[in-house]
Amino acid sequence: MGKVSASTPAENSSPVVLSVEHVDKVFRLPTEQATGLKQAFINWSRGIKGYKEQQVLEDISFQVHRGDFFGIVGRNGSGKSTLLKLISGIYCPERGKISYSGKLVPFIELGVGFNPELTGRENVYLNGALLGFTSEEVDAMYDDIVEFAELGDFMDQKLKNYSSGMQVRLAFSVAIKAQGDILVLDEVLAVGDEAFQRKCDDYFAQVKKDPSKTVILVTHDMSAVKKYCDKAILIQDGHIVVSGDKDDVANRYTLENLKAAKKDARDSKSDKYPTGLNERVPKLRAYPISSPVCSSSDIFRFDVEYQYDEDREFYLAIAMHDTRRGGIVYDTGSNRIKLRQSGHQIAHFEMPLNLFNNGEFRLVASLRTASRERPDAPTEMIAFTNDENSCVFAIRDSRNSEYALLSDRALRIRQVGVSQV
């Protein structure tokens, strides 16, 4: 790889430390195997390549400036990990140019290069050598690595005697404490136990404040993108579809995931009526009117389209499912919604979101009828929306937590006293 000059673009006063210009990457996938030189010659003479080409990345261009915390996101198979391997020099592009300045330290997979028969200390020096550091440079980093991993009493034990959590802590500590100018991380934020994750969180908060350190992060965690990154790109089918604002990138990624989930559900259906629908109720679907990616301060608006032609009393029930944490967050239950117009109709609804932290949710609607014989009996469900025709949406708000469902702004437990025993 070449070295990029310390240019200073007008839009950013910091020098460019990584430049990716019109990069393509193609993999050759074998379609048949020549068993010998003779067969290979025959295939060649007949114009048989014996492989097909798969375009993984096409015309990828972006720049990273010194001090950036730069995110690369995309669904599985989009090409983002291939891009990181190109940046790290593991792959070479078919077309285009990748150049950087300074010491680039790649960590594509934690623990790659660790030897279980060597001690923790020996593995630190081995990893350092693989990353291009001299023994003297590893000497300077060693104490920081051990202190961060909290493994001081175990560094002279063989790695095979470490628990999986200890190995992860050591690998991650080598990754982030390596004294490089550009740190390349692939899906390595959620490591270790809760206490270690808090320590990592504090570390990245410090890195964000260091103008000399540049971090390139590949992750599926959009909360990490919004929390850490200054800029980001979204890769889809080998192309950059969004570049720049981290919130735009994170929200678009969430939206693409929601669309993909609905497509997967739709592709799995083959009956005359989708699951949940029937001849009595051939249409019933819930869908968003508001943006499917909302903040907690939004009022979420959605519609329910239905078709029901019978001349009898009927109702709509709506349940809100938490697809990340599991369970039903809210159900209209006894507050069933009486529908007054039969036929093919669209009912309009809205719901405040200020109670909730970040998450992904699904609104499932069911159409119900009252018993003719016993008006006071529970209603009977005759149709419901499946995964494809339910309303999916996500809440993304920087003020929110990712863990619990309810926001601290909606519910807070406060101490009212203490008694001595």
Keywords for this entry:
transport; ABC_transpr_TagH-like; 421 residues; alpha/beta; six-stranded mixed sheet; ATP hydrolysis activity; ATP binding; Rossmann fold
Quick recap of the structure?
With 421 residues, the chain is α/β, with parallel strands linked by helices. Helices cover 24% and strands 32% of the residues.
List the helices and strands and how they pair.
Layout: E1 16-30, H1 37-45, E2 51-65, E3 69-73, H2 80-87, E4 95-100, E5 104-107, H3 120-130, H4 135-149, H5 164-177, E6 182-186, H6 194-209, E7 214-218, H7 222-228, E8 231-236, E9 239-245, H8 246-267, E10 283-288, E11 293-294, E12 299-308, E13 314-322, E14 328-331, E15 337-339, E16 343-352, E17 359-369, E18 380-384, E19 391-395
Parallel strand pairs: 3-7, 3-8, 5-6, 6-7, 11-19
Antiparallel strand pairs: 1-2, 1-4, 8-9, 10-12, 12-16, 13-14, 13-15, 13-17, 17-18, 17-19
Helix pairs in contact: 3-4, 4-5, 7-8
GO molecular function, one term: ATP binding
Protein name: Polysaccharide ABC transporter, ATP-binding protein
Keywords: ATP-binding, Hydrolase, Nucleotide-binding, Transport
Architecture overview:
The chain is α/β, with parallel strands linked by helices and 421 residues long. It has 2 domains: 16-256, Rossmann fold (3-Layer(aba) Sandwich); 283-395, Immunoglobulin-like (Sandwich), CATH 2.60.40.3930. The protein is 24% helix and 32% strand. It is built from 8 helices and 19 strands. The strands form 4 sheets. Strands 11, 13, 14, 15, 17, 18 and 19 form a 7-stranded mixed β-sheet that branches. Strands 5-6-7-3-8-9 form a 6-stranded mixed β-sheet, with helices on both faces. Strand 13 and strand 14 (328-331) form a beta hairpin. The longest helix has 22 residues, at 246-267. The chain is globular.
